[in-house]
Structures are given as C-alpha cells and as structure tokens.
Amino acid sequence: TYRILPDEENFLAVQTSQGVQPKRFKTLPELIQLYLQPSQGLVTTLLFPVEREETTEDRDYSDEKPPLPPRTASTSSSAGSALVSPDTVTASNGLSTISHEYLKSSYALDLEAVKQGANSLPHLNKTLEASCKRLHGEVDKVLCGLEILSKVFDQQSASMVSRMIQQTVSQGGDQELEHLVTKLAILKDLLSSIEKKVHTHTQLNASDVSFDSTHAILEPKNHWLLPNFCTLKHVKLDVYLADLTKIGKSQKYSLSVDVEGGKLVVMKKMKDAQEDWNTFTHDKIRQLIKSQRVQNKLGIVFEKEKDKSQRKDFIFASAKKREAFCQLLQLMKNKHSNQDEPDMISIFIGTWNMGSVPAPKSMGSWILSRGLGKTLDEMAVTIPHDIYVLGTQENSVCDKEWVETLRCALKDYTEIDYKPIAVQTLWNIKIVVLVKAEHENRISHVGMSSVKTGIANTLGNKGAVGVSFMFNGTSFGFVNCHLTSGNEKIHRRNQNYLDILRQLSLGDKQLNSFDISLRFTHLFWFGDLNYRLDMDIQEILNYINRKEFEPLLKVDQLNLEREKNKVFLRFAEEEITYPPTYRYERGSRDTYVWQKQKATGMRTNVPSWCDRILWKSYPETHIVCNSYGCTDDIVTSDHSPVFGTFEVGVTSQFVSKKGLPKSSEQAYIEFENIEAIVKTASRTKFFIEFYSTCLEEFKKSYENDTQSSDNVNFLRVGWTSKQLTTLKPILSDIEYLQDQHLLLTVKSLDGYESYGECVLALKSMIGSTTQQFHTYLSHRGEETGNIRGSMRVRVPSERMGTRERLYGTLYTETIFVLDPFEGDATTCKNSFNNPAYYILEGVPNQSAALASDMLPTLLPSMFTRTRNLT
Predict the structure, then answer these.
(1) Count of Cβ atoms closer than 10 Å to residue 718 Cβ
(2) Is residue 329 domain-resident?
(3) Keywords of this protein's UniProt record, alphabetized (predicted)?
C-alpha cells in the first residue's frame, strides 16, 4: 500500500522512507503518469487516478448505489447482479479497491471452485484477511490497554488475552478470521465488565487510592541531545496504553509496570499496527540510573545474558513523573526480591606513600585496620566492609597489577571477590575503589579526575586523583593527594589544596557553582598531605618516646592552618592517637630518620603526621569513624600505611507507604526572610539560587530589598518573603524530605558571580511553625560570610509516616539557633563576630571594632541538644 499525501503547499507526493527526497506533483494524474513507468521506486506501477468528488464530511452515502463491477467472460449475469444489490454500501479507503479486485478476478475462481464441490471460498478468505489486517492490530492495541487497566483493579485478571495474541501471531490461514471474531467477543466482554471492576475497586479504596501499574507516553527527542540507541522522550504516567517514539526510527513504544506480577513490559509498535512485547521480570532489572544533568531522564539497566547488560534511557514529562515511575519499579523490586536495600554501609579508607617500592606480600594489618591508634575490636576486624577505597603515593606498580594485588589481598582476608569500579592514576598517585559484588548495581554516575600541582602546576609528581559516584541516592567523593614536601612550604601546600578543590572535576555538573566540598553528601580527602610539626627535633622525639601526642598535635601545621580557616574548611578528622607516620627508617618502625642528604645540602625532616584522612558531610547525616590508625608491621617504605573505617548512612529509591500522592498533597519549602553578610567592597544587588535533588530544577529569588554596610569590606543584604521563591519538592512524604538538603549560592546581579555557598538540611526545618537557621558561607574553599533566616518545610498530614533506620538512635548534635532574648552572642574564635578575624583578613583595626558591634545581633549562640532521629 502506497500513501499519497499533500504537503504544506498542497503538492502531492508518495510517502517515502526517512532520508529519501520525495517527488512532488501538482495533480494526481501527473503523479500517476510518472509511476506508470517502471523503475520509479515502487514494487508495482500505479494504474489510474481516482479523484475524490467531494470531501468525506460533506457526502452522504445512505442513498447511493455502487457502480456495477466489470465482468469477466466466465462471470454469469445472474451472479454479478446478485453481488451488487441495491442495498450494498460503498466501501471507504482501500477496501473498495480490494473488493473491486476480488470481483474483477478472484470471484470467478471461487465460483469455479464451488461448481466443483468446494466447501470454502479461499480467495474470498484471503481478500477478507487482507482487508482486516489493520483491524487485527487495532483490536490488539485496545485489548492490551484494557487488559492492563483491568489488572490494575483486579490482580487476578486472566492472562488469556496475551496468550491469544501470541497464538494469533504464530497462526494464519483460515483461522485468521476466526481469531478476529474471538478477539471482538473478548473485547465486548472486557468493555462490559471493566466498569464494574473499577467501580468495585474505588468503593473499597475510596480513602487510599494507589496504582500497581503504570504506563509511559513518549514523543521524539532531538537525537543530538541523548544517546541514539535507546533515547525516548516525554514520559507521562498513565493507566492507559500510549505511544512513544524511538529516536531515528518511526517505531512506537509503551511501558507497563506490573507490581503484583513482578514484570516490566516494553511494547514496540510495528508499522502494521502489530505490537512486539518485551517483558522483563524484576530480577532482570539491574539498576535505575537517574540523570543529574537532565532531571526527568532515567536510565534502566536490563540484564540480557550472564554478566551482560543493556541500558535504555527514557525522558519523562517531568521529574515528578520520573520519581513516581521509579517508586513503582522499586515497589515491584521490594515485593519480589529477597534482598533489602541497605540504609547503612561500611567504608574502608586507606592511604600509603609506598616510597617507590613494591608492596610486601602481606598487607593484612592495613586491610584489617590493625596496628596503632584507634583500631577495630578483634571481633570486628574480620567483618568485610562494603566499599574499600585505597589511595597510594609514589606507587610504581602498574595499574592492572596493583588492582589485582588488592583484589587478591581482599579475597585472602575476607573470602569475597570485590569488584573494581574505578581506578584513577596521575603519575605514581593512584586511587582504587572496590565494592562487594552485591553493591555493583547500586553504584552509578562514576566520575574520575586528576589535578597536577607539581612544578608550575604542569608536573604530576604532586597533585591529586579523585573518584565520585552515587550509592543509590547518596553521593560520595574521594580525593587522594600528594602535596608539596618541605617543612617551610606551608603556603605552597595550602595553595595545592585550593588548586585541587577548585580544579578537580567530580560530581554533578549542575553544581558547578559549588566547589567539591559541597557537591557530595560525603567527601573523603586523604593522602600524603606533607604538613609537618613546628617543633625542635629533640623535643619531638622525647614526646614520641613518652607517647605524649597532644603537645605535638598543637604544633601540627595542618591543625594550625585549619584553625585559621586556611584549608579544609569545616572538614572533620578523628582524634590522632598513633605516633607520626613519617619519616621511618626502612625495614624498621623503631627509628625515625630525620636527616636526609639532598643536592642542596642536609635536609631535616622532623617526624610528622604527613598521612591523614579527613571528611566533610552534609549536616544532619549519619557518619561515624570507627577506626583511625596506622600499621606497625609494614616496613618497606619510610611512611606507615594509615587506615580509617566509617559507618555511613545511605538512602535508596524512596517508596511511599501512602501510595501515589493526590494533587492536594503537596509539600512546600517556604522562606520568611533571609539575611546574609558577604565579604565584598561592591555595593551591587544580589540574588539567591536554590539547588536540590528534591526540586525539578534550580530556582532563583528576586534581588535583595535591603542592603547596608558598617564595614567597607563587608555588605549585609536581606530578602523578605516577597523576594523569596516558594519551593515545591518532587515528593511530599516526610520520610523522603528528611533526607534532603538544599544548596544555596548568593550571586551578584552584575556578572552573576557567586559570593558564597552553603548547604541546609531540611530535616530540622520540617514543622508547622517557622524554624530558624544559620550557617557560614564559603567560596572556592575560603570563608566569605554567613547567612541566616527563617523558613519551614510544610508537609501534608497525609504524608507524615516514617520508618525506623539502623542508625536511628539517640545522638548529640551541635545546632546554631537565633536567640532573640540574648543581647550578646558568644564570641567564637575565627568567626565573623570576632574582631581578630578582620585583622587576620587584613581589615584595619578601626573597622574590626565596628564589625564587632555590628555582628553580634546577627550571629547566633551555640547550644548542644539531643534528638531522637526516629
């Protein structure tokens, strides 16, 4: 069948496949004239034009009679007259042509067959089958949609329709018409019974409606935006069967989630209106990957064969639709899978400067966190961790050999085959991440990066390597660095840190306004940081011999620089209770070698804690350091390996216990006011941008409406509720919102440059009354101001259910609050209400006095309270 269609200019052309230039004609006879000739791209030549006398809408066929068909020599007059009785109605579209052809040629053959005693009319059957071919597809489409809708409200609905359709595809011949009649009968029964099912279901569940099945409506997407092989667009959750288009092809798709049956059905529509079904059981759906760049994009990883998988990407109508679809898939997995999603995992962090020497045969003490300092109990050292992250410096072993060495070591001590998910190298600086096989499909969005900080920032002998990924719904970042050596090069090391912080490309690219210390739920930073002790060598050795580490930690350069807010702003480090890890005599851990011959002369390397592990986590998240120490039996290098183990709370795909929300069940994040002090001599206007994974897209406030300054280097700006946007989370359940965080960046109107960023936890902001917050602003690793305000997260009463978690126990947290009855805020070292801060930052003394008067009313006091997370 060839379709002749008019274009926008009313020229006629035969419909062609994609990419083929159509030939255009003003009239139908002109078109037929060309296609009467052979070799014009058609299988058979066209015969003659049949123009429409009137449009279909204007004609009334009730009183018309069809023309008499032409007769062959063998056709009797009586037979022809019988076939064209006055009561016959003219057929429409191609059916009249098919009937015309049958009467012109095949009818005589059937007539002869009947004369010879035949009981059937084979040519008529073929004609009818051809005429009803499209009807087959349309009936299949309607039946499938109605069957799915029926299953939504009746989980015991029979699957006979699906079986019948499959049988129809495989059978043909004389049974085609019989199957069509059967389909029509079933269609009649479904239509008459489905209303009763829905009515019964709605009566039983009027107070709590939730769906077990959903579908997807998708439309084409520009192919250059997304991967060609499986990109789909505009997914709309619905309970009816609907179409979607695959990029580059004119095929149609539809999705269906059967929660009770544990199946996801992907339906592909063919050109003949038939449908190709691909069914994936719950155990074949390996992973859901939510795009960070496109909030409504979802990747589904299907298992094809053993150890092989295929990813298909879909773009939903909105982030809310994607989230609802993910909830249904996760609900299906939870219902049928024996494997629960974890809400807490254990992470091992290791750092070791190997001294350009291969590792010893046994690294058990490092892997098992045995040695000096805070170590694990003997009963716990044999418990395998979920994730191992090992950073090395001066590691001359090739990547492949080093990964295999670590895998074998883990297998020896844990009897588990760990899977490497990331390896990143910069010269001899390496980071390797290995996970349990059961977690492999929980990890997505793996990113890797490196930064050189060697001579002129072009050599990789110093620098950092980093890895980031998502573990279900929790983001992780890991940085292994090797900073400049030398007791006197403190400022150079500080600059190394800032260069790495600003240049390492990890995490969600939508958060480019934020440095990597704010892009991750949990960020771990470790390596040979090379900060030394500022004390005479003999005093250091005496303190070490007496195991008195506290006086040494007071002169530790890293601790001193952190107190000045020069590096690792708001990072944490577990208490150090082990001796300095550098510089030992190789082959022994009894002697420090503090003199080193260099080309420029004798160099002093005092014993120091060069090898460190620090971390930074979002507020109100769960993280506990269970061990932090060093080995005392690995002696191949002049550094001792350092280990740290962490218990970390994680989130998974949220599934509401309340079912899909009603339109009225919407949570809101509302701000009454925000006030900020930013470090700037500029007097421009500012606005605030809000980012969060719980929002469909980032939001902006209007420009500030108040502005003042009592200090030339600082500006106070304020917003009222009129300038602040009300934010609508994707989901409204309190359990979901308690895990969410809001990232804020204060930007100027002239140039859109950020003057400070921060992160707020929504958990303590949830309630019926306004809550107050206060935190510090930072930009590019430096403290640039502070911000406070009043806000609340309003959750509908219907979405207030929560669940208990493994780490939902009593804990102590330090929270900033605004006390309106307190006249003077407590002066804290290195904070903006401390005049010394301004002196440190180069502000004149007279300005510092003004600042100390201006800021106490802005900054909160601190208090400690205990809260039950459950």
Answers:
(1) 17
(2) yes
(3) Actin-binding, Cell adhesion, Cytoplasm, Cytoskeleton, Hydrolase, Immunity, Membrane, Nucleus, Phosphoprotein, SH2 domain
Q: Give the Cα separation of 77 and 81 in Å (integer).
A: 6
User: What was the pLDDT predicted at 520?
Assistant: 98
Is the Cβ–Cβ distance between 526 and 480 less than 8 Å? yes
Distance CA 284, CA 801 (A): 31
Query: Which two three-digit tokens encode residue 603?
Result: 């160099």
Of all helices (H) and strands (E), which one includes residue 141? Answer: helix 133-153
Q: By the 8 A CB rule, do 716 and 677 touch? A: yes
**Residue 109 carries which DSSP code?**
H
User: Of 431 and 42, which is predicted with more confidence?
Assistant: 431
Residue 350 burial (10 A CB sphere; 0-12, 13-18, 19+)? buried
Adjacent-strand bridge partners of 99? none
What is d(CA 370, CA 364) in angstroms, rounded to the nearest whole number?
A: 8
pLDDT of residue 16: 75
Chain centroid, CA 311 distance in Å = 14
CATH of the domain at 41: 3.30.505.10
Q: Residue for token digits 């062959």?
A: 72
pLDDT score at 269: 60
Provide the CB-side half-sphere exposure for 75 (13 A, CA): 20
Predicted confidence (pLDDT) per residue in 296-345, tens digit: 888 888 887 767 788 888 777 788 778 778 878 877 877 777 778 899 99
User: In total, how many domains does the chain have?
Assistant: 4
Distance CA 504, CA 465 (A): 8
Q: What is the CATH number of the domain that holds 834?
A: 2.60.40.150
Q: What is the pLDDT of residues 461-488, one digit of tens each?
A: 899 999 999 999 999 999 999 999 999 9
For the record, the structure tokens of 237 come out as 């959750």
Is residue 615 assigned to a domain? yes
* pLDDT-derived band at 253, boundaries 50, 70, 90: low
Cβ neighbors of 215 (< 8 A, separation 6 or more) are: 148, 237, 238, 239, 240, 241, 242, 254, 255, 256
Question: What's residue 235's pLDDT?
Answer: 33
Q: Are residues 620 and 738 in the same domain?
A: no
Q: What is the DSSP string of 740-802?
A: -EEEEEEEETTT--EEEEEEEESGGGBSSS-EEEEEEEEETTEEEEEEEEEEEEE--GGG---
Give the Cα separation of 103 and 108 in Å (integer): 8
- Please write the tens of the pLDDT for every residue from 766-817: 998 999 999 999 999 999 999 999 999 999 887 776 655 655 543 333 333 3
**Both tokens of residue 152?**
């939504």
More confident residue, 38 or 790: 790
One domain, residues 830 and 744: yes
Span 641-685, pLDDT tens digits:
999 999 999 999 887 766 665 656 789 999 999 999 999 999 999
Torsion, Cα of 264, 269, 274, 278 (10° steps): -30
Q: How confident is the model at residue 59 (pLDDT cuts 50, 70, 90)?
A: very low
Q: Is the dihedral of CA 633, 638, 641, 642 positive or negative?
A: positive
Same structural domain, 634 and 611? yes
Considering the domain boundaries, does residue 811 fall inside one? yes
Sheet with 686-691, side-by-side order of all strands: 699-700, 686-691, 741-748, 754-761, 771-779, 782-794, 668-679, 714-720, 706-711
- For residue 613, pLDDT beyond 70: yes
| Concatenated DSSP letters of 472-521 | TTEEEEEEEEEPPP-TT-HHHHHHHHHHHHHH---S-GGGTTS-GGGTSS
Structure tokens at 550: 């506290």
CB 35 within 8 A of CB 14: yes
Range of the domain at 744: 668-868
Report whether 609 contacts 535 (CB < 8 A).
no
Asked if residue 400 has pLDDT above 80, the reply is yes
Same domain, 421 and 535: yes
Is there a contact between 340 and 330 (Cβ–Cβ < 8 Å)?
no
